[in-house]
Every structure is written in structure tokens, then in C-alpha cells.
Design brief:
Helices cover about 40% and strands about 0% of the residues. The chain is mostly helical and about 220 residues long. It is built from 9 helices and no strands.
């Protein structure tokens, strides 16, 4: 309890954690990497993953593109978590990375403000085909376009800057001259949609629920 209280005080003061996490739960069954990190963050009173990774002094803490973790980011995360959790986290983190559920979010009853995405995420192929941005893409648990099975992106593949709400978004990057016609499809099309993704799309097997969710998505996007 003393360690937890100290860490809470450090969090409120904006000071980096220098020793151990006060609460350090193990991953839940069938959890995903991002979901586990959210759980750890919430247990420390932190609501943003980027802030949590900075506080645990992860080398080059991740601040965007949460659906894609490269090898160096995973290794940096393992090193930082092993220190603040005071245990070897390599096997558990590797299992989370390999379990095929990279988009699983912690907690099925999270508040709407926590799953709402307030920045643009797009399917480049949809923009090329019909200049469409789907309202369901504003929900954090939706990771891919159900038409093309393409991974939604929020940063430019060329300049890596975060996309912003501008009319030029329909043609390409809002920062550089990259066009969506230049985008190369990702290899994610062979991965099945999780139930968190399928259940918020209008082609659900339960039309009445799908209609309600569709209305909710439109409201959040507005």
C-alpha cells in the first residue's frame, strides 16, 4: 500500500515512476497487448497509454499506431515493464503479442469517452474506391475495414505524421503529397475480425442491435 500511495503521488505530480508499480496484475485470459497495458495503466490511475509508457521510462515510448508494435518497441516495453513490475515479463508479453488478438481492449464496460476516437482513421482503399469515411471507424475497438479487411490507419505511411480533419484527407496525407492511390494493401486480410469489431458493423446478425450501434456511432462521430 505504501508503494501504491507513493506512485499515486508521483503520477499526480507528473514525475516519472522510479521504482515499482503499486498494483501489477498479470494478463487476463485471452487478453491482448494493448488491453493488458490499459489495465496496468488504470491500476495506477492513468488513462492514457502514452503517458503510462513515459512514466515507466520505456525507451522511446510509443505515442501512436497502437495496432502495430515493431520488434524494438516490444523489447523496450519488456525491459521497462520487467523493471517496474519487479518480475520477468518477457514470456507474458510475448504471449500477448503472439495470441492473435492485438486489438482486444481491456474491460467490456469501458465508458464511451474511452473508446471514442476523435482523430481520423481511414481505409485508403475505401477512399480510393468511393471517397468514404465510415462512421464506425470512430470506435477504438474497430481495427479494420470490413469491406477490404484493410487495417485502418491514422498516420501517413510516408511521413508518419498523424492525419487531421481536412478536406484533403479524401485524396491523401494532410501533411505531405502522399496519395491513397499509392498505398499498398497490408497482409492483415487473412486475420479474422474479432467479435469486438464485427458487433459494431451494420452487417451484424442482430439488425435491431446493429441499428442502435449505428446510431450511436453517428452521434459520436458528429
Amino acid at each position: 500500500m505504501k508503494s501504491l500511495n507513493i506512485n499515486w503521488a508521483l503520477v499526480w505530480l507528473g514525475v516519472k515512476l522510479t521504482k515499482y508499480l503499486g498494483v501489477k496484475p498479470f494478463p487476463h485470459e485471452n487478453d491482448g497487448l494493448n488491453g493488458h497495458l490499459l489495465n496496468l495503466a488504470y491500476c495506477q490511475g492513468i488513462s492514457k497509454l502514452s503517458k503510462f509508457l513515459a512514466l515507466i521510462e520505456m525507451d522511446k515510448p510509443k505515442v501512436k499506431r497502437w495496432g502495430v508494435w515493431d520488434e524494438s518497441e516490444i523489447e523496450n516495453l519488456i525491459t521497462a515493464l520487467s523493471t517496474v513490475c519487479n518480475r520477468d515479463t518477457r514470456s507474458s508479453i510475448r504471449k500477448l503479442v503472439d495470441n492473435g488478438r492485438p486489438f482486444r481492449c481491456f474491460g467490456e464496460t469501458r465508458m464511451f469517452r474511452e473508446i471514442r476516437v476523435d482523430f481520423p482513421r481511414v481505409c485508403p482503399l475505401c477512399l480510393v474506391d468511393n471517397r468514404q469515411i465510415h462512421k464506425h471507424w470512430c470506435i477504438g475497438t474497430v481495427a479494420r475495414c470490413v469491406v477490404h479487411k484493410e487495417l485502418l490507419i491514422d498516420t501517413c505511411p510516408r511521413c508518419d505524421k498523424q492525419l487531421i480533419w481536412q478536406d484533403s484527407l479524401f485524396n491523401g496525407c494532410t501533411h505531405c503529397d502522399f496519395k491513397w492511390t499509392e498505398h499498398k494493401p497490408t497482409p492483415w486480410t487473412d486475420i479474422k475480425l474479432s467479435r469486438y469489431e464485427k458487433n459494431v458493423h451494420p452487417n451484424s446478425n442482430k439488425p435491431d442491435i446493429a441499428d442502435r450501434i449505428s446510431g450511436l456511432c453517428a452521434t459520436m462521430m458528429a
